[in-house]
Amino acid sequence: MHFSHDPSGTIHTMLSVDEARERILACFAPLPPRRTPLLDALGLVLAEPIIARESIPPFTNSAMDGYAVRASDTRGACPDRPAELRVIGEAPAGSPAPRGFSDEAPPLRVESGMAIRIMTGAVLPPGADAVVRFEDTDESDTPSTIRSRGVVRIRREIAPGENVRCAGEDILAGSVVFEPGTVLGPAHLGLLASLGYSWVLVHPRPRIAILATGDEVVPIDWPLEPGQIRNSNSTVLAALVQQTGGIPKLIGIAIDREEDVARHLQYTHDADLILTSGGVSQGDYDRIKEFLRARGRFEIWQVRIKPGKPMAFGFVADTPVLALPGNPVAAVVAFLQFARPAILRLLGRADLEPIRVRARLTKAVDNRGRRRHFVRALLHRRSGELWVTPVPQQGSGILSGLVHGNCLAVIPEEWSEAPVGSEVTVELYDPIIAAAILAAGI
Ligand code: AMP
Ligand code: MG
Fold this sequence. Notes:
Distance between the termini: 42 Å
Number of strands: 29
Oligomer: single chain
Strand order of the largest sheet: 1-2-19-21-22-18-14-17
Structural class: alpha/beta
Bound molecules: adenosine monophosphate, magnesium ion
Helix content: 10-25%
């Protein structure tokens, strides 16, 4: 770490990306777990072990529509010499036991030479050990009601257990289904539903307050006066928060005055993290710095990162505040490097890193400033190899560069130049894009 002075005499701590990230992450822990309706838990992290109270399936049942039989009765059966079995009743799904054809019939059991017509999901009748599909019987040749026919001809030899789903074959009662820390996807929710959980204990979604700053910055639906720009940062940051799993709350635009920043930050007590953009650089009106110094516990940093060097991190009351640069691309890069892992940690996630691959540069990249340089780029495959091409628009205010790229190529701070053909790390933040590129050609 080193120190530098700006013209106003402020001491800035000079940090590497890794040091800054370490300091920020040290202040975050998973949010206290909350019991949550199952359908609100998609993508959240489980905070309790799930022990199966029941087996799935809870009873042995048929996997097909057909006839429940004893497999040994079908030995040697073929289309020319079908096995003929007497149909003694039916087993519809949802019924605890098979039904006979007359009400006074005794409880049914499949003995040798007998069959019970059965539907998918119905309890396997006592005595039966296999199910013959309708397609392997004479069912379709002789349309008739089950009551009138009396016998079924089986055209194929069936193995014991065929078309039978055994109780507990998916999950056994008493077994550990999920450990704490599991990220719940749609299938996880389905298993929990089949085990009878309508609520689960998960780490809740963090609430992230987002404040824009700048005298020139106006709401997006305002007509622009000369000198003004619309507040694109709050939209981009809110979308990134959502994509990461947090709940964004836009708290407006503060003008470049300490009191106005303070006024906006009054409405953030329920936030788990406050993100601001702008006002942290060396300009005459960069008032976030002053606000933070005067009213919070703060560190003003210069991070060896490109784009975006100035940043601040600290607390207002007990809420952490990450002050991101104002330039739109710098704000996004800083979000991805610092806010994203913090939000993932609040969510209880253990995997804080983006998907990373190695690829070779198709163009040289200058890095004379010796900062860790996140280059907006396109990752692609050429003859089975991964290559990465920087997009032409590299300005830190040019959002189009991010739109045209699909990744960030990382040039290490130790390199003053990345020559053509050099291998660099590439970070992929969108799992759908990552899957599409990485799957193609493998
Ligand atoms: P600052 O860090 O406040 O000096 O801002 C750096 C650059 O980012 C300036 O050109 C600002 O106009 C621009 N900027 C700041 N805040 C926003 C915002 N919310 N949306 C879009 N651009 C912004
Ligand atoms: Mg500003």
